[in-house]
Amino acid sequence: MDAEAGMNWCLARMSVAAALGMTVALPMACEPSGRDVSGGAAADDWIVLDPTIVIGDIEGDPNYLLGDVRSIALDDVGRIYVGDILGPPLRIYSNTGMFLKEMARGQGPGEVDFFPADLRFGPEGRLYVRDASRVTVFGPSEPDGVADSLMGTWPAPYRNVWTDRSHVGDDGTYYYPDQEFAFVPNDRIQTAEPPRFFFHVFRGGEETGDTVVVPFMLGMRGQRPAMYSLGGGTAAMVEGLSRVPFAPAPSWEMTADGTVLSADGTRPHLAETNQGGDTLRIIPLVRDSVRPVPPDERQDSLRALEARIDSIPVPLSEVRNLSVDVVDRNLPDVLPTVVAVHVGVDGRIWIERWPLDGDSGSRVYDVHDRSGGYLTTVVLRAPMVSQPPPYFGRRAVAGVVTDPRTGVHRVAVFQVEEW
After folding, report:
1. Could you give the dihedral angle defined by the CA atoms of residues 259, 265, 266 and 269, in that order, rounded to the nearest 10 degrees?
2. Where are the beta strands (DSSP E) in 287-335?
3. Cβ count within 10 A of residue 345
4. Segment (H or E) for 301
5. Pairing verdict, β 47-49 and 374-380
6. Alpha helix (H) ranges present in 78-197?
7. 39 near 87, Cβ under 8 Å?
8. Whole-prediction pTM
9. What would the pLDDT profile of 6-42 be if each residue is shown by its tens digit?
């Protein structure tokens, strides 16, 4: 069959499998689509991939029933490690998607609590598991083996249950993500002190006292969650009201060298900064023509925003950290140039773009090498969620997809060739 027919066949199989709640291994299709790029479609030299593995059932074998996946990691052999807050904290699958074992259930030594917020591989095949109260390190007991042997654990002095990506340097240094920001009245949000994001530095399980700061970028104030008071010192957070749809959002990632790569979402470049926030270099990105927000998507998003506002049981004046653009229903006219910045365990830089026109179920990445040189553009044909972020391994990428009818989580894995 030709490339287009092959892709359609793969997608059809994936759709049927999802509808039946099956865990299946799917063939990879990486032939370019050959579509014209003028409308934001895939170019001839882009790599288009379908999932080779989809893990997750609606019913049946409990080893494949995923609840609320908060973290994913891939080892160098391609085994898949899944952190779930509604099932066993950590499950391991083979590089073909077969269940191998569960581990770290409970509260004893070498265990992980109910909230495995982040999984990350470091040197020597060691897996770093961050939960709500500590970091636990597992390693393989034999070369290329499963990372299931306890290597060490240390308490985390800063409770962070969000899916912010931790990082492990080439020398084993562990970078623990943290943030601090004050809640301010809406009439002061544009002039208030911006949120501060940074990483605590750990070596050998001991905090060094050093931090790596994320440089300030326009749009960071929109990182504050919108919320309203419930009385008694409690509050309810409101998703989607601290930034309007299509608004550019700052994004950043640590590198294995302990520097930060960041993009503000509006300019076609990355900035690399050192521990103190000083700029080391600017990395130019692939520059596309400015893409306007599609009119239909704009109207749909505006209606969804109105519905979200109408659902709030208090006046907008009582919602803290509310975006002024939300109040004015002021949506941008053009799409962000950068959606998110990711750094793989091999140091390659994955720059997420806005999805292709009419193909919101795919994710598009410009891939750069460690020096910043452009390698290729990859289209991953599955609607992966942004939280938890995808995991970019040496030979594969894994992300979470959500069934639109049931909300069931699945893990999609894409095999990626080395360039």
Report:
1. 30
2. 319-320
3. 20
4. helix 295-310
5. parallel
6. none
7. no
8. 0.85
9. 333 343 334 434 333 334 443 333 333 333 343 455 6
